[in-house]
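FW: tagging you since you asked about this chain on Friday. Here's the raw sequence from the shared folder, copied in full. Didn't touch anything.
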Amino acid sequence: MLLSITLFSQNTIEEDPEIIQNNIDYYIEQSQKDIENFNYFEAQKTLDEALDLAQNSDNKKSIGLIQSIKGKLHLIIEEEDDAIKALNSAIEMQRIINDNKNLGRSYKTFGDVYMAKQNIYQALDSYRAAKSKFEEEELEADLAETLLAEGNAYIALKNYRKARELTEQAVAISRKENLLNTLSSALVNHGKIYNILNDHQKALDFTKEGLEIAKANSFKTIENEGFLVLSDIYESTNDFKLATNYLKAHIKLSDSLRAVKRANLSPEKRIQFLINDQIESNKKQQAELEEANSKNDLSTLISILSVALITILSLLTLSLYKNNNIRLKTNNMLHKKNNELIVAKEKAELASKTKANFLSTVTHELRTPLYAVTGLSNMLLDEDPKPEQIQHLKSLKFSGDYLLTFINDILQINKIEANKVEVESEPFNLKKKINNIVLALNNSALDNNITIHFEYDKDLPENFIADQLKISQILINLIGNSIKFTKDGDIWIRVYKIGQENDIYNLRFEVEDNGIGITKEKQDNMFESFSQGSIQINRKYGGTGLGLSIVKGLIEILKGKIYLQSELGKGTTFSLKFL
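HL: got it, structure written out here
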């Protein structure tokens, strides 16, 4: 009788809904701690145990919450498709029971998944749905996080005004509610936006404040982002030393964070987790079999067979683990090489930035004294110098003009390589523009006894909307090249229509001469910087070798293509297509 009462009492405890709920809550809390400590596989196991309890007790609210957390975990370990499955299950359950609080959080995580997959507009839809739920439930902390995430989406869309508005709201709520993590991240994002909008002082103030909060509270991911934003701000204000220091700090912390994540997501960690899980399962089954062994002989036989089967399975698992060791070592080597390549890439980018900044600074500093030299030489030539001084002054003026042209070419190349040249379209008369270029270069052509011919397609209108400055620069370089390398000859400039769709015209420009031509060997690298036909040509005709490199860069910015046809001694034709 006493035994029956004891069994009844034990079953009652096990089926008590309050105790089951407490166990589920404990597992959920433990899984979130594991996620914060990068113990992703332990968190996965804990959530699976919580889900079993919730499903067995038909606890729909807990099922939805657990699936939502599983979706977040899958996102962290870069399993976006599994994250979507888990979140769909969560949302379906939360809609049924009207769990708006957790439904909003599932929508927010869905937005984060879409951001990871670069589906920005779907992410925005999810964030708006999340905001609606959080506003209904007056959940300020969740609302601030969602506003911040929505702001990031608008940054990705380059809608910086909208991003600033949303981030300001996130900052305001975070300050009011003392949400340090969200406040720190929002301030750093605010700094990034203000830097893009060229308000560098506000950018510095916000970013430094966010970085201080991150450092004080060990928010390493936010601290890392803060270093990168500060590097960009100082680069924008030409403080290259501080920009480099913060970039190095960002690279160092990035390596550290990646190392922690890789260590907790490595294949070895996953296999070790599976083996430990199997061992625990085997021990549990063996204990149950030993208990059953005391009841009857049949149970003893089953126990022996089961233990044997478990042993075989364990050995098989161990064998599979050993067979996978070679593959895992290879993967480790690949991870290591990949990390080395990332570091090398970042160092190369840093070197490229430093080079570009150095060239920009040096050439700007050189131009000022050169303007003084050319200006003074012009003034002296205008003031009736002595006959024996005229040649010296002309040489000085020529040298100054040459150096100034060379420095301007270097600046132009530097801007093109740094993607700092923008297209500025405006209405203009194309035919008149080319005529003006021909007139401007005609004196140089006459010096070489050259006749310039201009042919304009009669089916083409004369007025267009395009970047006339860059088109002029391209044509001046090409026609100037033809004049330089042609004596007693002709130059033909042609403009044709090769296609039309409504008011959009596809044009072909040609600049042809019957000058000295270019050898086949030299044609492949004619568009590279400092490339010239040959040493003899350089000595005879001069030039920096930057003109064609600038031409190609400008044509690529205008989404066009350039082609070269040439034969030594017969002439050269440059063809441009703008589609």
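FW: Residues 367-417 form one domain.
HL: agreed, and Residues 297-382 form the longest helix (86 residues).
FW: great, closing this out.
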